[in-house]
UniProtKB/TrEMBL annotation:
Residues 469-532 form the TGS domain. Belongs to the relA/spoT family. This is GTP pyrophosphokinase. Pathway: Purine metabolism. One of its GO terms (molecular function) is guanosine-3',5'-bis(diphosphate) 3'-diphosphatase activity. Residues 429-463 are annotated as: Disordered. Residues 731-805 form the ACT domain. GO terms for cellular component: plasma membrane. GO terms for biological process: guanosine tetraphosphate metabolic process; nucleobase-containing small molecule interconversion; response to starvation. Pfam families: ACT_4 (PF13291), HD_4 (PF13328), RelA_SpoT (PF04607), TGS (PF02824). The lineage of its organism: Bacteria, Pseudomonadati, Pseudomonadota, Gammaproteobacteria, Moraxellales. Residues 439-456 have a biased composition (Polar residues).
């Protein structure tokens, strides 16, 4: 009769003897959780032995040696004897360190781990509870066992931090994959030995089996941690048996109602399913025999969490799932796999979209098999076809590479070392990872109420990986975030990885609540806090490699950027001062000049480069002011032309004489406002007066702004046009050290620039500073700019600038 695989994965296909008390303990523990399964029946006498915690150690050790294909396991025997004398019982005997060690070692034995791994598992809980010291372990069992225990303890401490970290719990609940990848990385970073990960997986598996004795709050927290972190690790190591159990046990606590519902459905359909599987198996067995293929056929039941995920993904009911009914066919060669696939498709109608060839294209964790689906006896049926070796690898993953049945493996081979490196690289390349387990664990218990919500499906498209070493550390921030850093990073490096400003303002650091120097190099699992000060700035000593403040390229780059920016910022401010001083002489607001207009001329990247150039000499101020004048069309005419008003026959006023257009018209009566005396080519605007047509103001004239705020309907647009126009009155103000002949020299310069002086007022103070106000006629801003620049260059001149008079009360 065909065998239906519905037993506990770790006990699948194994004959459990009554004297194998640890296995019976695992069976009973698991049976409480897998109440839908068909576990082997254990006698009352056996149960009594376990309930009283009188495990027959000798019988158990014999069974362990038998699994390892060894005559005896002396180290494991020694560990048992030591624990019996050292063990301190607790109120909850099920939490007893000895029983936990037996349970963990039992799991590892099914994964074909060596004796050192089994001993380490036995001692792990006892050392963690400080019943035994690391020194004792090293003295009694050697460095190999002691190192395995120590690295597993490191992973355990990280696991505790993760389990109790509320911030990380939010990542679990919200399935923040980027954060979860950091957690995976942190756990893997403590070791290069895959046995450490397997010991921790065994510990978490045993903890899940015992979780029914915990509080509901702890059940939820541990189940979330296992579902999100440890089930994916088991998958990435290819250990399907552990993955299935961890997922199902976690699901039981995270969504108990849904779990029980699916388990009940499995039990209700069991008889019908067994009959169906028997019929189709007989048909396929006959076809194999007819074609001379020796194979083993078994029924396969999908696991509860996998069923739940498929129902949500496909929005299907339990009865609609095609792979609830499944066969697994094991043969001797790859060629026979494809031969059997042809026979299956010949017997029943193939469902094309449900075919996957993982032999030609293995999954990243090494899984190989053919998956197909057919319609047999009017029902969908999944068929998996693989060789016996492929099946062995699929069930045990990396553990299948340690074959103790041959008695040749006492240490993990190179494959296992490479596998842990490969696993680390997978985690470090999460952006390119789409493997099923990252998505499988997007589990939200609250979503079980809405079955139309789709859970991300299995995807096995991962990048082919090299076996490279990645030396990293993983530390916690004050807020519980996991920060990944290159090994050898300092706390100052950490600060720059958190945020550039945190690094720039770093004043001190604390690691695990104690102050450390900024050169301190934290270790994985430590909590780092940076104390900042607003006024703090980076120190150039931080860039000195020999002082050891920073060891990462990222922090060094951030520091250099800061210092370059500080120098540049100072130069930009100085350049603005130089330019604004030149513009202030003209009473031109800096906002009216757009330096981007001159970027191409000076062959620089941006406007700031022009300002920096004014400081370092790459841009000449005279060249810049000349370009501004040219750009604003302020160059004087080469040939002097008498500026007389041109009277148009239709003109009603003086507008054309000033070369101004008001609202697009050129025959409007205008006058220049005395409050600001706008000069040709300055931005201007008009205001319609009651009696005198349109008054023309500088665009930024305060009086104009007051007028339009009061009567906005009287505002009208106005612009200059042409290069020639009527001379205009402006006022300039000068300060100079008083001396004989000063006024004569200044009037000579003004005359040289073809400006007509209409009025001059002078005042000399007791401090020998002469203050002079000139009212002059100029033709435009270009002429005025050149005049002021020439005046300011004269000996003894302190200041030369244009003056806008205070606005009158009426317009």
């Amino acid at each position: 009769m065909v065998k239906i695989r519905e037993s506990l994965p770790l006990l699948d296909g194994l004959d459990i003897q009554h004297d194998d008390s640890a296995s019976m303990l695992a069976s009973i523990t698991a049976q409480r959780h897998f109440n839908h399964t068909d576990l082997p029946i254990i006698s009352d006498s056996a149960s009594k032995i376990i309930d009283e915690h009188t495990i027959d150690t000798d019988a158990w050790l014999k069974s362990m040696a038998k699994r390892a294909n060894q005559p005896a396991l002396p180290k494991l025997n020694k560990a048992c004897e030591l624990l019996k004398t050292q063990d301190l019982s607790t109120p909850s005997k099920r939490s007893n360190a000895f029983l936990t060690g037996v349970g963990m070692a039992d799991i590892l034995a099914y994964l074909y781990q060596d004796e050192d791994a089994l001993v380490s598992a036995m001692l792990y809980r006892t050392v963690r509870k400080d019943v035994l010291s690391e020194k004792q372990v090293r003295a009694e069992f050697g460095n190999e066992v002691a190192d395995l225990v120590q690295e597993t303890l490191k992973m355990g401490r990280l696991s505790d931090l993760i389990e109790n970290n509320k911030r990380l719990e939010d990542h679990f609940n919200n399935n923040q994959k980027g954060r979860l990848a950091g957690i995976y990385n942190m756990l893997i970073s403590v070791t290069n030995d895959v046995r450490v990960v397997l010991i921790k997986l065994a510990e978490r598996t045993f903890a899940m089996r015992e979780l029914s004795f915990a509080t509901p709050e702890r059940q939820q927290r541990v189940a979330r941690e296992v579902m999100t972190i440890y089930a994916p690790l088991a998958h990435r190591l290819g250990i399907a048996q552990l993955k299935w159990e961890l997922e199902d046990l976690s699901f039981r606590y995270l969504a108990p109602d849904r779990y029980k519902e699916i388990a009940k459905l499995l039990n209700e359909k069991r008889s019908e399913r067994e009959s169906y599987i028997q019929n189709v198996s007989d048909q396929l067995q006959q076809a194999l025999a007819k074609n001379g293929i020796q194979g083993e056929i078994s029924g396969r039941v999908k696991h509860i969490y996998s069923i739940y995920r498929k129902m949500k993904l496909k929005s299907l009911s339990f009865d609609q799932l095609y792979d609830i009914r499944a066969l697994r066919v094991l043969v001797n060669s790859t060629a026979e796999c494809y031969h059997v696939m042809g026979l299956v498709h010949g017997l029943w109608r193939h469902i094309p979209e449900q075919f996957d060839d993982y032999i030609t294209n293995p999954k990243p964790n090494g899984y190989r098999s053919l998956h197909t689906a057919v319609i047999a006896e009017n029902k969908s049926l999944e068929v998996q076809i693989r060789t016996f070796d492929m099946h062995y690898e699929a069930e045990l993953g990396v553990c299948s590479h340690v074959n103790y049945k041959e008695g040749t493996k006492n240490k993990p081979d190179d494959y296992l070392t490479k596998k842990i490196s490969s696993l680390r690289q997978i985690l470090l390349n999460q952006d390119h990872t789409k493997d099923s387990n990252t998505k499988d664990n997007n589990f939200n218990p609250s979503s079980t109420k809405n079955e139309t919500t789709k859970t991300p499906q299995h995807s096995d498209d991962e990048t082919n990986l090299d076996f490279s070493e990645f030396e990293r550390i993983y530390v916690f921030s004050k807020d519980g975030e996991i920060i990944e850093l290159p090994k050898g990073s300092t706390v100052l490096d950490f600060a720059y990885y958190v945020h550039t400003q945190v690094g720039n303002r770093a004043q001190a650091a604390r690691v695990n609540q104690r102050y450390v120097p900024l050169t301190y190099q934290p270790k994985t699992g430590e909590q780092v806090e940076i104390i900042t000060k607003q006024s703090r700035e980076p120190n150039r000593d931080w860039l000195v490699a020999s002082l050891g403040y920073i060891n990462t390229a990222r922090a060094r780059s951030k520091l250099r950027q800061w210092f370059n920016k500080q120098d540049r910022d100072k130069n930009i401010e100085t350049g603005k001062h130089i330019l604004n001083k030149a513009l202030s002489r003209l009473s031109v607001h800096p906002n009216s000049i757009d330096l981007h207009d001159y970027v191409k001329f000076f062959n620089v990247r941006n406007a700031d480069d022009i300002l920096v150039g004014l400081v370092n000499g790459n841009v000449d101020l005279a060249d810049l002011t000349t370009q501004i004048t040219h750009h604003l069309d302020l160059e004087p005419d080469v040939v002097e032309t008498e500026l007389v008003p041109s009277i148009h026959p239709k003109a009603t006023g003086k507008l054309d004489a000033y070369k101004i257009k008001v609202d697009g018209l050129d025959n409007i009566d205008i006058r220049l406002a005395g409050c600001c005396s706008p000069v040709q080519n300055e931005p201007i605007a008009g205001f319609i007066t009651h009696l005198h047509g349109v008054s023309i103001h500088h665009m930024n004239c305060p009086e104009y702004e007051r007028l339009i705020q009061k009567e906005p309907e009287r505002a009208i647009s106005a612009v200059w046009y042409g290069n020639k126009g009527k001379s205009q009155l402006v006022q300039i103000y000068l300060e100079a050290y008083d001396r004989r002949g000063l006024l004569r020299d200044l009037t000579f310069i003004i005359d040289q620039e073809n400006a007509n002086i209409r009025r001059v007022d002078t005042l000399s103070d007791v401090d020998d500073i002469a203050r002079l106000n000139f009212t002059i006629e100029v033709t435009g801003l270009g002429q005025l700019s050149k005049l002021l620049a020439k005046l300011e260059q004269q000996h003894g001149i302190i200041l030369a600038r244009r003056v806008i008079t205070n606005p009158p009360k009426n317009t």
